[in-house]
Amino acid sequence: MTAPSSPEAPWPVRTVARKIADWIGRLGEVWVEGQVAQLSRRGGAATVFLTLRDPAADLSVPVTCHRDVAERPGLELTEGSRVIVRARPDYYVARGSFSLRATEIRAVGLGELLARIERIRRLLAAEGLFDAARKRPLPFAPGVVGVITGRDSAAERDVLVTARRRWPAIRFEMVNCAVQGPQAAQNVIDGLRRLDADPTVEVIVIARGGGSVEDLLPFSDEGLVRAIAATRTPVVTAVGHETDTTLVDHVADVRAATPTDAAHRVVPEIGEQRRLVEGLRSRARSVVTGRLDQQVRWLESVRTRPVLASPDRLLHGREEDVDGLRTRARRTLVHRVEGAERDLEHARARVAALSPAATLERGYAVVQRADGSLVRDPADVTDDERLRIRVSGGRLTVRVDREADPSADQEEKQS
Amino acid sequence: MSDTEPTTTYEQAREELADVVRRLEAGGLTLEESLALWERGEELAKLCQHWLDRARERLAAAAPADDADRS
C-alpha cells in the first residue's frame, strides 16, 4: 500500500485516480431504476452515452454502455423513458470521469407502471374506499379552504385567483410541497393531515398541473389514497390534465377537471348568488303583492255590490213597497167606499121604493094598533080601540067609531 | 273600530262579509234585519280594509330597507 499522502509527500494523480477507481469499484454491480434524460449516439461509435435521472430526486448519473446494449431489439430507448439498468460503477482514470457501465437495460414500460397502479386500484376498490356512498358533499360557502399544491405553481395560481374572484371573502390555508418524486406522496399526506386537523378548514383541494404518468405517480400512492379516505374534511382533487386519472381522483369526494374547475366547485360565485337571492326575494314579494292586490280587488267588488253600496236602495225598495201598498190600499178603499155609496144609493132607492113615505105622500096612511101591528082588516080592531095613524106629514092617534059609518067595513073587502 | 288590534282575522271578516252580502241579496228580510245586516256588512268591510292597509304598510315598510341595503 502506498504511504499516506501528505503535503510533503503528495500522491501523484495516477495514484489518486487508481485509489478512486478501487473505491468506486467496491460498489459492485447494481440494478438501478431511473429515467433517460439525455441520450447520445455519436455516429458509429461503439459506446453510447446517456444520463439516467432520478425523477423523484432530481439527481442524475452518467451511464455508458455498448451500442448493442442500448439498441437491443424491443427496447425503444428514448429520452424520458423509464428504465431499469444493471451496471457497475466505472472510473475512467484517463479523464477522471465517473459513469455507470451498463451491461443490460430494460425498459420500464408505461404498461408496467399502469399495471402497478391498476393493482393498487383494484385492491382499494375492493376495500370500498372508492364507494360513492363515502363521498361527502362540499360545504356551500367554506370559510377556509385548505390547498395542497406545488409552490408558486400554475395550479396554485389558478385555484387562488379563481376562488377569490368568485368569493372575495374566501380565506386559504396553504400547503406548498413537492408534487413530484418519492417524497411527494408523503409531503401531501403530511399536509393533508395538518389541514384535516384544523377545524376551520372546511374543504381541502389537492391541485397539480399536468405531467407524465411518472410525474403523477405519487398521486396514485396507496398511502396517500388511504390518507384521503381517512380525512374528516371533504377533499377535492385537481391532478393532471382532464384525461389523466390518478387514484386520488377515485377516492376524492369531488374530482375536479382542472385547478380552476376545483375553485368553481369549492366556492360559489358571489354575483350569481346575489342574483339568485335577489330573484327569490322579488318572487316572494310579487306573490305577496299579487295576493294583496287580489284581495283589495275582491273587497272593492264586494263594496260596490248594491246591497252594500247603496243601502238606501233597500229603503227605496221598501218605500216603494209602502207607497205601492198605500196606493193600493187607497184604491181599494176608494173602490169600497164607492161601492158602499153605490150600495147605499141602491138601498136608499130600495128603501125609498119600499118605504111608505112615497105612498103616504100620495095620501095613503098607515094604521097601526097600539102594539105596532098593521091593521089590514077592520075586523081586526075593536070598537073604540086606539089606533095610530101615520100620514106623510106625521102621526096622529084615533079611536074606532063604527057608528059613524057602519057600511065602511063591507066596501073595503070587495076591492 | 277599536284602536287595539281587532281579534277577527282577515279571512274570518271576509268570510262573514261574503255571507252578509249573500243574505242581503237573497232578500226576504224584515227592515230591521236588513238594516242590522247592512251595518254588520259595513263594519266587516272596514275590518277587511284595515287588514289590507296594514299588510300594505308592512310591505312598504320592508321595501325601503330592501333598497337601502342594496350595496
TrEMBL record, chain A:
Domain Exonuclease VII large subunit C-terminal: 129-351
Chief location category: cytoplasm
Subcellular location: Cytoplasm
Pfam families xref list: Exonuc_VII_L, tRNA_anti_2
Top-level EC class as recorded in UniProt: hydrolase
Protein purpose: Bidirectionally degrades single-stranded DNA into large acid-insoluble oligonucleotides, which are then degraded further into small acid-soluble oligonucleotides.
Listed name of the protein: Exodeoxyribonuclease 7 large subunit
UniProt organism field: Blastococcus haudaquaticus
TrEMBL record, chain B:
Pfam families xref list: Exonuc_VII_S
Enzyme Commission numbers on file: 3.1.11.6
GO biological process, one term: DNA catabolic process
Cellular compartment(s): Cytoplasm
Family: Belongs to the XseB family.
HAMAP family (alphabetical): Exonuc_7_S
Protein name, entry field: Exodeoxyribonuclease 7 small subunit
Species classification: Bacteria, Bacillati, Actinomycetota, Actinomycetes, Geodermatophilales
